[in-house]
Amino acid sequence: MYRKNSHSAFVLVATLAAALLFSANARSDEPVKIRAGWVVTPASLIPILFAKKGLSKHEGKSYDFEPVFVGASPPMITGLAAGDLEIAALGFSSFPFAVQNAGLSDLRIIADETQNGYPGYATTLYMVLKNSPFKSAEDLKDKTLAVNALGAGVDIGMRAFLLKHGMQYQRDYNLVEVPFPSMKAMLMDGKVSLITGAVPFMYDPELQANARTLFTLTDALGGTELSFWTMRAGFIAKHRAAVVDLLEDTVRAYRWYADPANHDEAVDIVARQTKLPREKLDAWVFTAKDNYRDPNGVPDLAELQRNIDAEKQLGFIKTDLEVAKYADLSLVKEADQRLK
Question: Which of 49, 95, 191, 246 is the most exposed place for a label (fewest CB within 10 A)?
Answer without folding.
Answer: 191
